[in-house]
Fold each of these.
Amino acid sequence: MRAVIQRVNRASVSVSGEITGSIDRGLCLLIGITHEDTADDLKYIVDKTLNMRIFPEESGDSGFDQSVIDIEGGLLLVSQFTLYASTRKGRRPGFTDAARPEQAEPMFNELVDSFRMNSGLRVQTGVFGASMTVDIENAGPVTIILDSEERNTPRKG
């Protein structure tokens, strides 16, 4: 599972001009699911995201001191199979590493539920599989990529 996490002042997602989810200060997560993902991958993404200290203290405008839970921020989750694009051959990306919708949608819904249960925060989403417009006001900017596959990889140096 991959998550592109952006610290935001505000973010929203809309489908056909209708806003389906919006948050103020918090995190916008673009979520990619592969066919090998398990409950352990989901747990890793939820735990890392909720506890990662990427917000400044109220007294300062820089630093990485507080988590999204500490600031009582919002979470906007948007499914994005293109995070598993392969560009090794040709000019058109391939998506064979992305989970098929019938596998990815239940896992995405489980991820959303897990964020809700484990955070107590406002959790908003887009519409799975829809063509969406995501509007993000990135704060910092701070953008972090999590890949659950890397949790078992030894650190370099």
Amino acid sequence: MPHLKHLYPEPYTYQQYQELPEGVRVEIIDGVVYDMAASPIVKHQVIVIKLAALFERFFSGKPCKPFVAPLDVVLDDINVVEPDVFVVCDPDKITEKNITGAPDLIIEVLSPSNNIKDRRNKKWLYEGHGVKEFIIISPMEESAERYWLVNGKYGLSELFSWDENFYSNLFPELFFDLRVIFEKEHVVSEPDPAWLVRARLAYPDMPR
């Protein structure tokens, strides 16, 4: 996803962003505008749809709400992004037209055009704004990578391969079978009871 420094002044602000013509899709990271015009690959869309359906079922009736792009997440005046899938637990952050403030969990599904931006720029951005759990899913590598915020910093990532179950740290009862996400198999695994016990002990105050 190329930046557009030659077209937009820096630092570009949310006020200027709101004046863009309808249909123009960009993100602003640290005042730099990044083009989102390139269509994602088919695998990207398949994964996002599967995750959206899973999250809708899991969070139904719960206080935290899942969302999918395109929806603006306004982190501050010079940082406006559209994460692929994300969860917000603070209702005060949910406005009629956007999300104001950091989501609690964000998933970015990579495409060739956004690989570097999502792995590097967005990781730094989400860490700095306090996103508790950041997950990167790579259709090309068929893997999932998780970052977990501890004392305001992301530690080393945890890597999950296509044949594993992915478990959320923030929501211990939320898991998904990566074989299904990557369309390797059409079965849904059962959660590991030992993981749920460990997770509940480790994160007793986390939302369920």
Amino acid sequence: DFGPLGCVVDGLGSGATAESFTRAFSQFGDVIHARIGRDAGCGKKLGMVVYEDERSAREAIEKMNGKEIDGYRITVKESRYSQFRRRAVVE
């Protein structure tokens, strides 16, 4: 483990909330930070979750990428928080 690591989640539905988002991703480990925003480029919702350890983030990427949440297929990738801030208008 190399400390905290984040995941960026694309494709969230308009009804996604910070609470439901955090709940869905906390099953993989201790979440330090979770946030939902709108993609500045297209207005769709996206999320960022930061785990306490790299192992949890990698497990979330492996198990959640391509899954459906609230009828929307999501994409989960490794990310640094600065990448999320450049793309999102945080709600």
Amino acid sequence: MNRNKVGLAVGAGCIILVLLFVIALSLVFPLFNTIAMPVREVSQPAAPSEEQTFDLLPTLTPATQGVEPQVTSSPAAISTLPGLEANSLTALYRQLNPGVVNIQVYVERETLSGVGAGSGFILDNEGHIVTNHHVVADATQVTVIFFNGLEAEAEVIGVDAESDLAMLKVAQLVEGVHPLPLADSDQVQVGEWVVAIGNPFQLGGSMTVGIVSAMGRTIPTGSTPFVIPQAIQTDAAINPGNSGGPLLNLRGEVIGVNAQILSRGAPANAGVGFAIPANVVRRIAPALIENGSYQWPWLGVQGGDVSLAIMEANDLPQQTGAYIADVVPDGPAEEAGIQGTSHIEEVDGVEVPVGGDVVIEADGQPVTDFASLLVRVAYKNPGDTVDLTVLRDGQEQQLTVTLEPRPENLEP
């Protein structure tokens, strides 16, 4: 396998810096159609790269005409769910829906103009509203529609394409609405019941129920050569128009921001949706409000998980750690002395990278895979240092990396 099939490149924190091959995988988020993206396994960099028959799509929808919101329910089915009753969900909906908004955007470009629809939720009593970056990207006008049908013009005051989040501001909240609190998404467990409220197919105020299917997924941002780890996977129905809306636990806390679905071609729910974790919102929201942007730290390496093939080819003691395939020239990792793959070996007909450092600890905490390396760097700032323990030629070495601001125009 050549290096372009090895895996991911790390920016930092909640975002991975990915080189050219991942840029080709990144989503394009047009307002009026979606471009299919082959999804590749990123946790097994030594395995041949295989395209799946799924498309990872943003959950933004064009505005529909002449469609009235409809509510469908199955009380009998709901009542059979352990720990859930139809009346408890009804009360939960009444509690949460006033904190959710529908978003309409108007975009005018040289080759395209029109209206699209998404979702959002109220962050505070000052009129700040969270949504996805891809919902409002290039918007010339944004309108927020509250649960009671009242509308307000909104200003896009902050965007972060690398986490696919954006911050809106309305001059005044209408009566009856309220903010939704953020949960600690690090405490979310697989199997928890969740609800999603949003504007699917421009059917505002729609609620669906499901569970947390998995934690720690990695999804592309769609508009940058970076991806977002620690995403929450859910089987709650997420459809076009849910983008930017909240995924909530049964305590009424936002655990994530609905962003994407995995689907077989058609942009509709297939039981696999993804939400950006609430702790990312908590981290970057103040900067979006104050500065209009957020600066992620940058490590400057490319790599992936330690697969069985990598472990055997590199004579590693165990299948754990973050394998470094490449370092970005003149980046912080290279300056600290981190080394990438020295050569490629063929093992049982499979090309395997050999000679790269394997990060096993960051600031004294175990690094079990590539995603955990990102998490260890996640909530640092440019200028901070991270102490890495790496395996090189069978020996542990200690290296200190001074993180830098992520380059705005990174060349692959």
